[in-house]
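Data card: per-record layout.
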Amino acid sequence: MTTAVIKPEAKARNRSLKQFLNHRAAVASAGVLILLIFTAVFAPWLAPYDPYDLAMTDTGMLEFEAPPSRTFLLGTDAIGRDVLSRLIFGGRISLTIGLVSASISILVGSILGVLAGYLGHWTDLVLSRFADAVSTFPALFLILTVSSFVRPSIFNVMAVIGLLSWMPTFRLMRAEVLRLKQVDFIEGAQALGANNFRIMLLHLMPNAIAPIIVQATLGVAEAILTESALSFLGLGVQQPIASWGNMLADARNMTVLQSQPWLWLPPGLAIFVTVLAINFMGDGLRDAINPRKG
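The structure for this 294-residue chain is written out next.
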């Protein structure tokens, strides 16, 4: 009778999965995020109205700043557009910006981090000092400054946020590479004549990816908050395109804040729930991949 041999890698994956599933907040947050992504993907079919059309009653009357009702579940905005439809389509834009911006920052930070950590010497010195110099400026202030010099658009918002948010990933990747390059399998690859590019791409980056995944989840949350701030200040996604940030811009009016909560409360809650869910899931992933846990 033979017994199945479970490889160490499989054991580690099973242990990590079990650790993640034991984190109830992370599992619940993952469910919330799946629902949000599903809503964003199928927005054209789930939204009750066109987010750009003016809302009308059955009698043909335009509805401006109408409170929630059976016809318009979250009311209408100052221009007469359905708030629920714009909230659903706004989620598509905000989540896309968060994911793409985080991907850009992770890619840039990982490449620079592995170069600095593995090549060392002047490469490490130059890149580390450059990262330190950029980090001396508050991130949001730096992004606001750069955004004021470029034409506001979805593409520019994603590029600016992504290209100015790579420093934490750089430091994390550099630290992981400094640890990994002393491990036996890296020295073995060097002894077999593998070039630096092959070692960095096929050996270092895949083995340093676990903590980067956690950083990526946090980066998505930060990008969504940053996009919301930029759009709120008029430097992000521009009307008539809906995003949660520019929907919140209506709250700059004191009258809206006090008497028309249906205009700012839904996008505010959407941002809050999304960022909270991403952070909880990041905590669960961190606990799952931490070798000192379990």
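Known properties of this structure: The CA atoms of residues 39 and 46 lie 7 Å apart. The domain at 15-55+69-289 is CATH 1.10.3720.10 (MetI-like fold).

See the next section for split statistics.
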